[in-house]
Specification:
With about 450 residues, this protein is α/β, with parallel strands linked by helices. The protein folds into 2 domains: about 150 residues, Aspartate Aminotransferase, domain 1; about 270 residues, Aspartate Aminotransferase, domain 2 (3-Layer(aba) Sandwich), CATH 3.40.640.10. Helices cover about 40% and strands about 15% of the residues. It has 14 helices and 15 strands. A 7-stranded mixed β-sheet has the order 2-8-7-6-5-3-4, sandwiched between helices. Helix 8 links the parallel strand 5 and strand 6. Helix 4 runs parallel beside helix 11 and helix 7 runs parallel beside helix 8. The longest helix is centred in the last third of the chain and has 21 residues. The chain is globular, with a radius of gyration of 22 Å.
Length: about 450
């Protein structure tokens, strides 16, 4: 029997009952389910770092607006698929004030979270040209987006970007694009799971090649403006959240409300398509949709098929939150800086107990402290480490499922860890280090 903080016999039993052939290869939701079962039976609270969910209270301005909308009777009415009229201009205004990008309100579409936005984008962008049927993931990345491709029967290729930063990105990226089969490039910025952030030089490289090979860039801004090394909180004032939209018209932006507004439960995000791409015609779209215009196919083909619109009341919540941010009355960045503070403390505790940070640099700059960080421990693969840490009441996910080539690593999300748990985290990490001395 292992001398561990959580009963080792119980943990072993629940692992067997989970039905997972290899626990370390489990999906995020499978790890959540397993940890829930261990917590329920053991009565011990885990240090839960496996799922990227908000750990802060939702924005009050959104809650009140949604309550008011429900009281006005919107629950009995179908929303317009393209979004309620009052919301769309606020999305366009937000994009102008916080990214310094001009888009028409028509090109701004609410989605059922960025998950639906991505799904719809893949449906359309991968079918616009019969010769281009493959998505390129600049990894590491969000595992579910690859699952979406499998569900849709779409092809994808992938590479880990960490060894191809700066100028090296050009040659690596072009080696995929020159084959002519890539329809779409997708990445997140800041990156889930590594928290690396692309530099302006790298965004220019991606944009230049997307123009050269006519590829749509899908930029996932789930952690909008959460690179806390710069202050992106002032509407209409530089610096602005970095974006590919500065350098190409071949873009679709996915802006989540889940993390920056802590509004994950209401499942609402924004899809922003460049004006040029929105109205661009692709004859091959007619194979699947009634129109060959990308924006029309996106709204009345893909999004209509998926949900027939976004929850009516939550659209009014998003409108209120965006308006408050646009007017300078709501500093949403100040609200989420707590994640960076937690990460700084937690990374220190891991390092002091023999763990290493896997992704630690943006080219030559130290990586920011934010929503995620990555770690490893000598002598363990990420898959092995995930299972072993369960006995210590610590849960995370293996980088193996994210497209990372750093298979020794794991991703930690800081959002669910309260400061009151830091003492417990330190104790468990020390116990792990005692039981696994580094040779």
């Amino acid at each position: 029997m292992k001398n561990t903080p959580i009963d080792s016999v119980l943990v072993e039993q629940k692992i067997k009952e989970s039905g997972l052939p290899v626990v370390g290869k489990g999906s995020i939701r499978e790890i959540v389910r397993l940890v829930n079962n261990i917590e329920k039976v053991s009565g011990d609270k885990f240090i839960r770092m496996e799922m990227g969910v908000p750990g802060l209270e939702p924005a009050e301005v959104g809650i009140q607006a949604e309550i008011d909308a429900l009281k006005s009777g919107v629950a009995s009415k179908y929303p317009m698929i393209e979004g309620v009229a009052e919301l769309k201009p606020e999305i366009a205004r937000f994009v102008k004030l916080f990214l310094n990008i001009d888009v028409n309100a028509e090109s701004c579409i609410p989605t059922v979270g960025s998950m639906q936005g991505g799904f719809a984008s893949f449906l359309v962008s991968c079918r616009r040209d019969i010769k281009k049927d493959t998505t390129l993931f600049i990894d590491p990345g969000f595992p579910v987006q690859k699952q979406q491709h499998r569900v849709l029967g779409l092809k994808f290729e992938t590479f880990d970007v960490y060894d191809f930063r700066g100028e090296a990105l050009h040659e690596k990226l072009e080696s995929y694009l020159e084959k002519g089969n890539i329809s779409t490039i997708i990445y997140s910025n800041p990156n889930n799971p590594s928290w690396i952030c692309f530099t302006e030089k790298e965004l220019k490289i991606i944009a230049e090649l997307s123009n050269k090979y006519d590829v749509i860039v899908l930029e996932d801004l789930a952690y909008f403006a959460m690179d806390f090394r710069k202050d992106y909180s002032k509407p209409g004032e530089p610096p602005y959240q970095p974006t590919i939209a500065n350098y190409t018209d071949n873009y679709i932006l996915l802006i989540s409300s889940s993390k920056v507004f802590s509004y994950a439960g209401q499942r609402i995000g924004s899809m922003v398509i460049s004006n040029k791409l929105f109205y661009r015609k692709f004859p091959d779209l007619k194979r699947f949709f009634n129109s060959d215009e990308l924006g029309y196919a996106m709204v009345f083909g893909a999004l209509y098929s998926l949900s027939s619109g976004v929850c009516h009341s939550s659209q009014y919540a998003l409108k209120a939150m965006l308006k408050a941010a646009n007017d300078g009355d709501f500093d949403f960045i100040e609200m989420v800086k707590e994640y960076g503070e937690r990460a700084k403390i937690m990374k220190k505790l891991f390092i002091e107990n023999g763990f290493k940070i896997v992704y630690d640099k943006d080219e030559e700059k130290q990586l920011a402290d934010g929503f995620y960080f990555t770690f490893s421990y000598p002598g363990f693969s990420g898959i092995e480490l995930l299972e072993e840490l369960l006995y210590y009441g610590i849960s995370a996910i293996s980088l193996d499922i994210t497209g990372s080539k750093r298979l020794e690593g794991m991703r930690a999300c800081v959002s669910q860890i309260q400061r009151s748990q830091f003492v417990d985290l330190e104790f468990r990490l020390k116990k792990f280090a005692e039981n696994n001395p580094i040779s």
